[in-house]
Amino acid sequence: LRRLELLTAEEAAQVRAASPLAEQVRAVVDVLAGKGSHASQSLQSFIETSNSQLPVPFLCAEPMVQKHLESLQSSCGNGLEAGALRRLTNLLLVEGLTDIQQKEHDIVQVETTKGLPNVSKSIPLEKLFLPLSKVSIPPRISVTIGVAGIGKSTLVKLFVCTWAKGEIGRDIVFVLPLTFRELNTYEKLSAERLICSAFPHITEPGCILAGAARTLLILDGLDEFKTPLDFSNAVVCTDPKKEIQVDNLITNIIRGNLLQEASVWVTSRPAAARQIPSGLVDRMTEIRGFGAVEMKDFLDQMFLDDRDLSSQVLQHIRANRSLCVLCTIPGLCWISGSSIAYYLKNSTDQSQEATVVPRTLSEIYSYYFKMALSGDWLEKPRESLRIEQAANTSRKLVGSLGRLAFYGLLRKKHVFYEQDMKSYGIDLSLLHSSLSTRLLLKEELQTSTAYCFSHLTIQEFLAALYYHTAAKRAIFDLFTESGMSWPKLGFLTHFRSAVQRALQAEDRQLDIFVRFLSGLLSPQVNGLLAGWLLVKDEHGGVRDQAIGVLQRCLSSDHAVSSRAVNAMRCLHEIRHTDVARAVEEAMRSESLAGMLSPMNCSALAYLLQVSDVCLEETNLSNCLTYNVCKSLLSQLLFCHNLRLDNNQFKDDVMELLGSVLSVKDCQIQRLR
């Protein structure tokens, strides 16, 4: 109706003559023209029978609409496997961000919640931009969140391809998919130039700017945007032809000062999504990870020619609860599956001493890098390449990429452009090597070339490798890139500095980096990468001191935080598991009473996430005092089935537990 109201008399005549729904359209036009109420019955029939089926790109030239469809269809290309994408056809409907999503690293979010979102409502993809009920209106601002590697960009591609085929969103005339990594290449833009530069075939953007044709603007990857969005201080702009800073343009579009009639869909990692004030978001959805069946199907697809190998990889993943949780994320499942397959294929060729069963995250990524360095890739026949030759040709590239990865991590930068590569001394000609293509993804943009690491954790592992190597000879703080700082000598000093930085970081974005840095000190990882990226038995004497640094992070009388749990995970990576094993054994024998010191409480909080003892039920009967219960409170949130009987709790503890049950993050389903 909004479109028809804007028709001139001449256009209305064309509609009457051309439309396959001529009779109903004539009735609508007559009613709008005030030609009597006799047409109202036909109008009602028209509304009911053809609500979203009216072929009305009336106000935009038909050839332009057709060109846009063809452009999107060609850009979609192939590569979208229907079976693998079934998970993306239903999104979780969530009510804002939880505390853990706003404050924690993506990996920590998945580990803490065990990959199980605490929501039950879902919405099918075809209804993502429709009203939830007959009395509500379509959402103007929709935000879809998901951790790194879960498939946000794939979801956008799936939606655009499905829409271009006419299978969903038939009331939408224009879908305009944009990425923030493309927007990073501009300093200033107007709303009009934004459309014309991204979609040159849209020669008359007026119908979009005026809201005459229903438009969906997709902004993919807010977490990759170079400038934080500042809604408090953004300059108001209502002129679609005025060029302003790109971040101001985005805030004005989201606020509705520009493209008021367009629907806007933003995708983002959870922490970055908090930049958008909740009052402006009409609908928030979340992409769920793999279920058990989907994980199996994904691995079967990876190893199409070897189902036995697929089965062995899946068996290995399921045997490691912590790894199984992480593999609910497709990006991590692919890395882990590739590494384990490489281990399985090579373990029979080597002696028992030369192989390490990958159990920690650092060991998984060590196999991944070893596979990449040797050229022994799953999609290619095995190449006979000597270790020395591979190490000599690749070490320099890994070192350069590692420096880029480390300082990118400190600046929260995950997308790089050719100028970034040159400034870090990376030879662009080397970026076509097989090693580079396994670590980096390359995307040709309209005005430049963008690079990003194939997953956030690849960047973090490379950053840890760089820091590990540079710390041996650095005399200044590596976290200060300019080199101006108090002298810091010795690897242990730099290791301690990294741990302190991670503990102090409010956004927790160094947690996995420090975990990998700890893992590089383990004998198992050193054995895997010696001669490739590490020197054999280096830092052997430092390992015990590094363990002491990590254990001091646990000795606190305050509440057990995710920082303490991450320190326990660092100890696991370094393969020092004495504390965790002792507490786990006490849990099995139900003899925890009297042994829950601050360090053991941290170990218990860690075990709540990873131990099979807590898989069906978390039994903390007859072992908790008020202070211990209070310190563990933030970690008990995520236990589904919790036994706390025979602890002689009084009213103060009951009040604490009552407050926990009302927290949005709380996943407790059964409490004794």
UniProtKB/TrEMBL annotation:
It is found in: Cell membrane; Cytoplasm. Gene3D superfamilies: P-loop containing nucleotide triphosphate hydrolases, Ribonuclease Inhibitor. Coiled coil: none annotated. Residues 140-272 form the NACHT domain. SUPFAM superfamilies: DEATH domain. GO terms for molecular function: ATP binding. Residues 1-62 form the CARD domain. One of its GO terms (cellular component) is plasma membrane. GO terms for biological process: innate immune response; regulation of apoptotic process. Its main location: membrane. PROSITE patterns: CARD, NACHT. Keywords: ATP-binding, Cell membrane, Cytoplasm, Immunity, Innate immunity, Leucine-rich repeat, Lipoprotein, Membrane, Nucleotide-binding, Palmitate, Repeat. PANTHER family: NACHT, LRR AND CARD DOMAINS-CONTAINING. This is NLRC3 protein. It comes from Pardalotus punctatus. The gene is Nlrc3_0.
